[in-house]
């Protein structure tokens, strides 16, 4: 478990147009927290994760780990980032070496990919590839887990089983976790804390603590009250068009 502190993290992009994406983000994540970051498309969630992971550099501000060394990371990025010419099992073993074969197989089983160990990434659906990336992230027994919309494109029953997996994993290990999601209900089910990133300001506009995400302890009324507040804050965000409006065939008729 590892904590971190962000001070004044700012990120601007000038190409293709000037964009002030993150404006002086101050945030402390304590060891063992499960934090969900919620914000509309384009609000800077992935940019913030990339800065925390050291894949991007802020224009101002700092990221400080509360540890003597950079923690062991597990990450699911928005694209699964599997090596296309390696089998799913070899993609997992790439980060650990062959001694972890049994554990890798067990994790592939846990994400419901048993039987796909020898498949190439291109032979799997997007949702399957993302679950393989999740198994790879958990395989290293991370001290800090970053998940960028890991359950998108899964059917609702499978997404619920994967949420249970993440919840069990966190309750057993208390791995410090930062999850990006558009789904407030998902955030409420899994997190000890929910952050809202404002679409226009580039700042965190809400920071809500929740009771521990343990199905036995969860006080439903407390969670509903927090969720209701957050829903009110986010209801003005742009929503995706309904599928009919985007379907050129339906428009032509
Ligand atoms: N390398 C880059 N160069 C230029 N602009 C960038 C770059 N990376 C991100 N941006 C811009 O920064 C803004 C935030 O992008 P980001 O990917 O962080 O959003 P997001 O909140 O993760 O969105 P989504 O929910 O769609 O994944 C967007 O306007 C995007 O176009
Ligand atoms: Mg993103």
Characterization of this structure:
The chain is of the alpha/beta class and 253 residues long. It is 35% helix and 23% strand. The chain has nine helices and nine strands. Strands 5-6-7-3-8-9 form a six-stranded mixed beta sheet, with helices on both faces. The structure holds adenosine-5'-triphosphate and magnesium ion.
Structural category: alpha/beta
- Report how far the terminal alpha carbons are from each other: 57 Å
Radius of gyration, Cα only, in angstroms? 19 Å
Uncertain regions spanning at least 5 consecutive residues? none
Quick one: biggest sheet? 6 strands, mixed
What best-fitting shape do the alpha-carbon axes yield? globular
> Beta-sheet strand percentage?
15-25%
How many DSSP-defined strands? 9
Set out the fold topology.
Elements: E1 4-13, E2 19-29, E3 34-38, H1 45-53, E4 60-65, E5 73-76, H2 88-93, H3 101-110, H4 126-139, E6 144-148, H5 156-173, E7 176-180, H6 184-190, E8 193-197, E9 204-209, H7 220-234, H8 243-246, H9 248-252
Adenosine-5'-triphosphate binds at residues 13, 15, 19, 21, 39, 41-47, 78.
Keyword list:
253 residues; alpha/beta; three-stranded antiparallel sheet; 23% strand; binds adenosine-5'-triphosphate; binds magnesium ion
